[in-house]
Design a protein that fits this description.
- The complex is a heterodimer.
- Chain A is an alpha+beta fold.
- Chain A has 13 helices and 21 strands.
- Chain A has a domain of about 220 residues: FAD-linked oxidases, C-terminal domain (Vanillyl-alcohol Oxidase, Chain A, domain 3, 3-Layer(aba) Sandwich), CATH 3.40.462.10.
- In chain A, strand 1 and strand 2 form a beta hairpin.
- Chain B is α/β, with parallel strands linked by helices.
- Chain B has one domain: Rossmann fold (3-Layer(aba) Sandwich), CATH 3.40.50.
- Helix content of chain B is about 50%, strand content about 20%.
- In chain B, strands 3-2-1-4-5-6-9 form a seven-stranded parallel beta sheet, with helices on both faces. Chain B has a two-stranded parallel sheet with strand order 7-8.
- Chain B starts with a strand and ends in a 5-residue tail after the last helix.
- The relative contact order of chain B is 0.13.
- At the A-B interface, strand 2 and strand 5 of A face helix 2 of B.
């Protein structure tokens, strides 16, 4: 029986056969009898990396159990379909936290590994895969591979950031990190140019664990708010109550459009400017500002939206970011949720991991068809020229040439691919 | 520490109720299941969520009356039971029940007779204790027979009547009998139905409703609550309308 499934970008809803996994011990037997397919967790990646249109998905969110947690060492073993939120809520009260977390905690561990996600502290702690000690991979030939940085490291390096194409991640052992509590010492600093941004980013690298910035991509000049934070022992204090709101319906047109974008961005900048300075923040609103606005992706209307996240090396990065902002400003298209951040000077462990030393810019564009795609193609040219690459977890349309240029270890990676696994993205960018 | 006995502990609803109880306070959990290794996986998960809880797995046959009696005797040993949740079940294919009487028989046994026998065994212990809450998961399907699932519905109807009888018998004692009637819920049991019909409730949402109904000692609880209204209408539709409906 087929079910219509979209990814977070909501560009389309395509029919899928769905098989629900809930017993970790029978996953490899299930895969052996039921393939080709693709693991699908909470569906929070934006494009087609988590989709297999017309084909089979193995839904992993029923594999959501803890297996073991040692609160003297912080070593957690859990099934791969568990949400990061459930780990945080279990471990933070006991003094342990996920060392790396993306901008939403509503993703599964398996998805976080397969996309080797990063957070605001990349320059200190790298990406999600850097904290995985071991994982179990089930393959469609019925075999099971246990790998980690010290055991079968080639399999590990292919699977971390491997876009789900090497097998289904069944469980993982994660090294959590000590924290004094749920609080962060934060500082927000408005900036008015890219020069200022890079200066703040470099200056913050030594003393601040978390750095990120929101950028007004319509301003032309690179105006934004730089946010930085450090875990802190703020003692017991009242936890802010989470007011969960949801987009109640999908509006007929994108709420992010030519009329709203400039005033939105201007108002947001002014509001944040008023709030600039030091503060104490709970980790949930600090790391996951959008998680309480459920289904915020609906605000882009029925046609959905494209995310565009690039990373370009620091050498030439300033110019590349300026050129991209220029293109966006001229196009009048644009993005409310624009994020600019520097990555640390460290090599990722996954063959296809996205983070690399440099500067990353993430943008949302409401889908206006050809017009949007043309703008993205112009951004592609800038990224490729600068020696950068795009983030597959967010991609729904990058040209194959840009993928191949950005991921030089692709040929090596393909040796580890499971021939019984295929995704929309793999067919588009790898050919099968 | 509360003693909580969960019968059919590997069911998704039961597992999520256990998580809610474990998050609330350490408890003594007794997980009764047919498949011991699946129950052990859940026991390990609960232990991580609640390190101070005591968790025991009891493997049991679910159809053999003497095994059911022995299992409940073993569960009650040591300390009285505060909460017992009877949660097992399996959604059969209705058409298969019509063509194969063995399938029909098995569906009636596992969804109707088995929970009733467990309920009887637990009720006896609780009556002797003079206290306790016995919660049984029935179903909206038990409210009126429908062509799409009357084998399952009839079994759940049996559970409904049995719970009513126990409520009558134990009225005025310290024992509360709670009958839960979930609507269609997104669990592995209903995975094959997902494409059809309206959006199903999440298992977290339903587990929340079950735990609340048990707290309140409600005699009948529809979860989510909207099913109370929907089923009121369905039960009262005259046959000449009902029989034309494709439900």
């Amino acid at each position: 029986m087929s079910i219509s499934i979209s990814s977070w970008g909501r560009l389309d809803a395509t029919p899928h056969e769905v098989h629900f996994l809930s017993d970790r011990k029978s996953v490899s037997a299930t895969l052996a009898s039921l393939h080709p397919g693709l693991a699908h967790g909470n569906g929070r990646s934006y494009g087609d990396v988590c989709l297999n249109p017309g084909g089979l998905l193995w839904k992993t969110t029923g594999l959501d159990r803890f297996i073991h947690f040692d609160d003297s060492t912080g070593l957690l073993r859990c099934e791969a379909g568990i949400l990061l939120r459930d780990i945080q809520r279990m471990s933070v009260p006991r003094g342990w936290i996920l060392p790396v977390t993306p901008g939403t905690q509503l993703v599964t561990v398996g998805g976080a590994i397969a996309n080797d996600v990063h957070g605001k502290n990349h320059h200190v702690l790298g990406s999600f895969g850097d904290h995985i000690r071991q994982l179990t991979l089930a393959r469609t030939d019925g075999s099971v591979i246990v790998c980690g940085p010290d055991a079968r490291p080639d399999w590990f390096s292919a699977t971390v950031g491997g876009l789900g194409l090497t097998g289904v991640i069944v469980d993982a052992t994660i090294q959590l990190r000590r924290v004094a509590g749920p609080w962060l010492d934060t500082e927000n600093i408005p900036y008015t140019s890219l020069d200022e941004f890079f200066h703040l980013a470099d200056e913050s690298e030594a003393g601040w664990e978390h750095t990120v910035s929101w950028i007004d991509c319509m301003s032309g000049t690179g105006k934004g708010i730089f946010m930085r934070g450090n875990p802190t022992d703020a003692g017991p204090r009242p936890v802010p109550s989470a007011h969960k709101r949801a987009m109640p319906f999908t509006p007929p047109v994108s709420l992010v459009n030519g009329l709203t974008l400039r005033p939105f961005n201007l108002a947001y900048y002014q509001l944040q400017k008023l709030k600039s300075g030091r503060g104490i923040a709970h980790y949930e609103p600090f790391f996951y500002p959008l998680d309480n606005l459920l289904e915020w992706n609906r605000m882009y209307g029925p046609r959905g939206f494209y995310q565009y996240q690039s990373v370009v090396p620091r050498q030439g990065g300033h110019e590349a970011v300026a050129a991209m902002l220029g293109e966006i400003g001229r196009s009048g298209e644009g993005s409310f949720l624009a994020v600019l951040k520097t990555f640390g000077n460290r090599q990722p462990i996954g063959m296809l991991s996205f983070p690399q030393p440099g500067v990353t810019l993430a943008l949302d564009f409401p889908n206006k068809g050809e017009k949007t795609l043309k703008l993205l193609a112009r951004l592609d040219a800038i990224v490729q020229e600068a020696g950068g690459r795009l983030y597959p977890a967010k991609d729904a349309r990058m040209p194959r040439g840009l993928f191949e240029a950005g991921y030089p270890q692709l040929a090596e990676f393909l040796k580890f691919r499971d021939p019984g696994i295929t995704s929309g993205l793999s067919r588009r960018l790898i050919g099968n | 520490m509360q003693k909580i006995v969960i019968i059919g502990a590997t069911s998704a609803m039961a597992e999520h109720c256990a998580r809610l109880w474990a998050a609330r306070a350490p408890a003594e959990f007794i997980l009764v299941a047919r498949d011991e290794s699946k129950a052990q996986i859940i026991a390990a998960d609960l232990q991580v969520r609640s390190p101070a809880s005591r968790i025991r797995v009891l493997k049991s046959d679910f159809l053999e009356p003497s095994a059911i009696r022995t299992t409940i005797k073993s569960a009650v040993a040591g300390a009285p039971i505060d909460i017992a949740l009877i949660a097992h079940g399996s959604l059969p294919d209705q058409q298969h029940c019509e063509s194969d009487l063995q399938t029909c028989h098995d569906a009636l046994m596992v969804n109707g007779v088995s929970p009733a026998l467990f309920a009887e065994a637990v009720a006896g212990e609780m009556a002797a204790q003079g206290k306790g809450t016995l919660a049984i998961i029935g179903s909206v399907a038990g409210d009126r027979g429908r062509k799409s699932n009357y084998a399952y519905g009839a079994a759940k109807g049996l559970v409904t009547r049995y719970a009513q009888g126990l409520q009558h018998r134990l009225a005025g004692t310290g024992v509360k009998v709670v009958l839960i009637k979930p609507g269609p819920t997104d669990t592995p049991m209903t995975a094959h139905l997902k494409a059809a019909g309206p959006k199903m409730a999440t298992v977290e949402e339903v587990a929340n409703g079950i735990v609340k109904a048990i707290d309140a000692g409600q005699s009948v609880a529809y979860v989510p609550g909207k099913w109370k209204i929907i089923m009121f209408v369905i039960r009262h539709l005259p046959a000449f309308i009902f029989n034309k409906m494709n439900i």
